[in-house]
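Input set for joint prediction.
Command: fold jointly, output tokens.
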Amino acid sequence: MSSNPVLVEAWRGGVVESRHRGACAVVDAQGRVLWSVGDIDHPVFPRSAVKLLQALPLVASGAADAFHLDDAALALACASHGGEEAHVRTARSVLQRAGLDEGALECGTHWPYFEPAARALAAAGRQPCPLHNNCSGKHAGFLCLGAHLAGGREPRGFVAGYVRRGHPLMREVEHALQTATGWDLATAPCGTDGCSIPTHAIPLRHLALAFARAGTGVGLPPELARAAQRLRAAIARHPFLVAGSERMDTQLMQALGERLCCKVGAEGMYCAALPEAGLGVALKIDDGAARAAEAALAALAQALLPLDDAAAAAVGDWNPRRLINWQGLEVGALRATEALRPADAAARRTPGSLPG
Amino acid sequence: MSSNPVLVEAWRGGVVESRHRGACAVVDAQGRVLWSVGDIDHPVFPRSAVKLLQALPLVASGAADAFHLDDAALALACASHGGEEAHVRTARSVLQRAGLDEGALECGTHWPYFEPAARALAAAGRQPCPLHNNCSGKHAGFLCLGAHLAGGREPRGFVAGYVRRGHPLMREVEHALQTATGWDLATAPCGTDGCSIPTHAIPLRHLALAFARAGTGVGLPPELARAAQRLRAAIARHPFLVAGSERMDTQLMQALGERLCCKVGAEGMYCAALPEAGLGVALKIDDGAARAAEAALAALAQALLPLDDAAAAAVGDWNPRRLINWQGLEVGALRATEALRPADAAARRTPGSLPG
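tokens >
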């Protein structure tokens, strides 16, 4: 495999201390690559960056309406959350609406990712449960879909083993992902994600296409286009539920609303829809570093979206990102490189003016 | 800067998900490079990987004897610890011996790195203090050195601001580092470390040389050679104090004793002395990932040291490292690549038989 360019550098003492290589695709809903860097045709595991796409069947199937899921529930279905109180409460409520409880979750248990939430739990003498898993909202959404698909059958029995590839529920999720990305998942490498569901290797070009489609509705079947629009609106109304305290996804979408629908994934993944520009973005940092994926996505938002002062400040917190040590001293910065600058060329144009 | 080779890969679903590039030097005490990969002449910040070298003046100056520091105190002076109870207790005791307390520490405060220790602290309704900082043992050692250098002066006044470059205490530390590495620190790029002391950029070739010297005593002034021997013995007796629960440094040295003296550093650094082979090792992962630095160091230990079954099992836990998800499923592995295999060629030979 060829070497991707350095997209993000960590600076200290006036020199580069560490460097992150990667690739990125900026694509419109017709599949035209408006800008790219690195190898965008090598399939990568999108991990949690495609939760919005995985949540499409929840809405498109009618399950969300059948169980009266509100915007908070839909936002949490697209979340990698910090296990904070609002996340846990919302996940529990979603399960209750489907007549289920946390015992049905097959995502596993971990302490809340947001450390103050983990310490608060410990201080209360409590232990984490599957509701604290960062993926509990996505799984609660899956279970609502499953309970809906079960029809008259007992839902708990029907959903058992839902994380397995081939389960009727997971087939629906896989079908939506394949439709949105236009990538044949039947033959794609398939791994097991941290929360035990399958993750399929898909090129960045096709992931970006899927987010351009999800951001515009263009190129999607009508029911998926409507579902994407509803999920994006729900996320824009509840950006805290998608991630949480001190998280970039939350802070950027608090500042930008529906102008940016972005989602981090494990191992250096980021996907985003930029509806007003008609664009989708997908990037992967080769080494899997979240800090670099964040700085890179922030750089692309800076390049691709006109930002007022407040929005520029919110995005600017993440690129360049100041590195502060334990005494509060500023000791360096994490900074996107020139390799991410050509995105400026694609910026602030209307999609129609871009080359085909 | 040219592209270093991929040293470690993260596998999932039968394919490589993420890759870590880096460089590594294996050097003897005469400065002969017995094996290397990547650019070993580019200066890198060693960060905490050189704590053993930074602790040399504590012993060589006579401060350790003057304050009756035992092996536990000396091991902790070389530690990046997890903030567990034994670490905190030992750090406090070291400061007391010098007539100081945690108020003199200028390393800053953070919650214990070992998460169960952080949660236990929170469960007890307590907050962290500078003693929980992973560098508190190193700083406690610095302060003993400072109190010794103060002579008749009031130690607290003398040591104030000790983390600054140019402070008499830090000048002693810098001098030892320069002597061991043979690298001119006066002109080297200098950054500020997480714990606020200076970190000087030094090529891997010279860092490996310093550890070959520290492991053999060859090429060091007698007082530094003796100090290195004493610190290595102390670390071998107290490997828990150098790192802590679930940490590679602790587990490898519990298994190997004085045969391996290794130390992780932030941003993908590792240094190690292999006294029986007469070798020093230094490596940096370009992107700063600790997980990859660990797998790479484990691969080098596998290549460079004859291991019995128990030792092979302990080292083998770290390369290949099994990746387990939140449901306990094995979903992949972190594995050193062929690029680290040629180290086999340098392995299991006596130093004298190696080419100059």
